[in-house]
Every structure is written in C-alpha cells, then in structure tokens.
Amino acid sequence: MKVISSKDRAFKAAVKRITSRSNLQSGAVETAAKTILKAVERGGDTAVIRYTKKFDRVSLKPSQFRISPEQLKEAYYQIRKEEGDALRYAAQRITAFHERQRTKTWMYQDNGATLGQVVMPIDAVGLYVPGGKAVYPSSVLMSAIPAKVAGVKRVVMCTPAPKGGISPYLLVAADIAGVDEVYRIGGVQALAAMAYGTKSIARVDKIVGPGNIYVATAKRLLYGTVGIDMIAGPSELLVIADEAANPSHVAADLLCEAEHDEEARVYLVTTSDRLAKEVTRQIQEQLKKLKREKIVARSIARHAVALIVGSMEEAIELANEIAPEHLELSVDRPFDYLEKVRHAGALFLGRYTPPAVADYVAGPNHVLPTGGTARFFSPLSFDDYVKKSNIIAYTKEELAKVKDHVSRIAQMEGLDAHAKSVESRHS
What predicted TM-score, i.e. pTM, was given to this entire model? Predict the structure, then answer.
C-alpha cells in the first residue's frame, strides 16, 4: 500500500485519482450490453438460452429456468444447521431494522382541501444476485427482506448458475427471505428478461442489486423501462484512524473490503505516519494467511493508498470529498464527528465496529452507494420498494378561494387552458 503525506507533491494527484474513480462507462461494454438487451427484448426465452449457454456454458430449456419450491427446501439438507441458524439470525436483524423505516399513507385538512400522500408497495421487484468469484447469501437477504417488509407481492431473483447449479446458501437465503421466484439466469440477459418479460419470466417493475460492469451498464440502459436502485461499482472502504488505533485491526478491515474483487478500493486516512507504516506492514503479513490472497493482493497493489494529513478536521473533509461507500472512524470519541460527515454510504463508529458486522448481521442494509455517489444516493431501504402518489381533494368553496391565484400563474406561463379548467367550475 502506498503511503503519501499531504506535504508530498503526489498527494493532490492521488486524491484526484480517488475522486475520479466513478467512471464505469465503457463504449465496448455498452455496445455489448445493448446487443444482449435488444436480443432478449425481441427473442425472449430463445435469446436468454443462447446467452446463458455462451457466458455460463449451461444449456437450459425454458422449463429449467426456475428453481422449484421443492429444490429450495432440499437446499436446507445441503448446509449445516448452524449455517442456517446464522442466516435466520441475520434475517431477523435485517427485518427489525427495515421495519423501523416504514412510512404510511398520510393526509391532513387545510380548510376545505384534503392533502396527503398514498404510500404503496411496488407490484413486482427483481433482485439480481451476483455469482462467480464468491457466493453472497447476505445480498439475497439484504435485497429481498426490505421488499417483503414493504409489502411487495412478487419478488423475483436471478443469479448466475455456472454448470447449472446454484449454491444452496443462496437458495436457503432466498427461502428465508420469502423470495417468490428464483431463476438460474445471470448477466445482462437476466436483467433483460426481468425488465422486458419473456414467456417464462413475467416482467418486473424495478430491478435492484449489484453486479459487474456489464450488469451495472445494463441497469443504467434499462432505467425508464424499469426502475433501478443505483449503479453499483466496486466495493470501497475508507478508514480514518488516529494515532491510538490498533494497526492490526485497521489492516484487517482494509483486507476485508479488498477481498471482494481485484477492483475493490481501500484507503487509510490518518494523522499518524507511524500508524500508516505499521498498517502497511500488517497488510503484507495478514495477506499471506488469506484464502483469496491473489485477489486481495491485486486490489491492494492497484488501488490501496494511505494518506497522511495534519488533523482530524482535514481527515473528515477528505472523506467528504471522496464520499466512500464505507467510512470507518477508528478514533477516540467518534460520535463527535458524526455531524461533520456529509457523504458516506455507511458509518462505522469506534474501535470495535468492523464493516463485516454490518455486511451480515447488524441489520442496516449493505447495498450502498459507491464511486462517490454517496453525495446524492442513499443505502437500499424500505423506500426503494414503495412508490408514492399525492392526494389532492378540494371542495367547491375552497377552489373558489384559490381560483384567481391559479389563473394568474397560468397566464404567466401562457397556459390559458389551465386557467379555464378552474374558472369553468365557477362560471
């Protein structure tokens, strides 16, 4: 991991590279994604079969797309009891947290006008659960449970199935979370099938969940045909640590995030030159003991950097500029800085709050904005699974009180039909 001080000439360039990391667009990727989307829109199941065979090397018939309820139940026999217990515990925690986010339909009276908002669940939501380098039952729980809390009637899950099989952990998580339909389809073709609908897979209204650059690009292209949650990029962690932080803990947390894939971004911002050097040493030592050593090593070599600043105030401002997915404050009195942090997907406060606890069992959602989009995006939540309609109801008498204001504003905009629609009720 590179160590750069704010006094070094390279500091500004390093910060610029970090803050410009969100450019996930690629002409070649977009062209490929468009081709697949159009093919599935036109060809339906036939195109899904073709691309599944091409990318996952699996030959499926439409009747084999969906995992049956019996197969979901059989998956429990393929995992240990304590593993199922851990998933159920996580599900309870996630449910409890998202139930606190509930909002209800509300109305109020303003003289002769009734105003308010109807809150209703989206009819059908599609979950994309990535596969390949790792298995993510936690992502199934995090994506599906808020949908069920919100009252979504139809929750559909698509996930790649290399060699035709899906991890029993994913299937058990889907069953625990109440997923209604599970399909062994991944990649852009899965998003297209959910967005456009095929003979075998009915269309959904919104698609949520992370994926690789092809999945992210396809979600962006499909926005408008369906709703989406956000465009997720590589995982990120920024640790702000003071001189009293435990370098072994900081290194372990950075390695935890780098474990996701080679493009994961991990950063350390500290006021201590000694800590930065010791964390770097710890990373090299701990790295050798990891099962995914090669993946982590590539992430660290490509993207990891330790930035040394002059004060905690500078560290917080730098974090706001970077707007990381995960922000850990391994400092004394972390809550003192809470209101100063403006941009972060999730905050981990104190010496004993590793990001891994929130990845799995804390309860808050781990689907978070990446690439600096924490400046304007929020974590996946109850709100992503509902939609709202405004309520407006005027009496004849109340409309008479406001008709002149309506007419004047309509005339300002040159829209006389707007004025006449109100005036016609009092002519």
Answer: 0.94
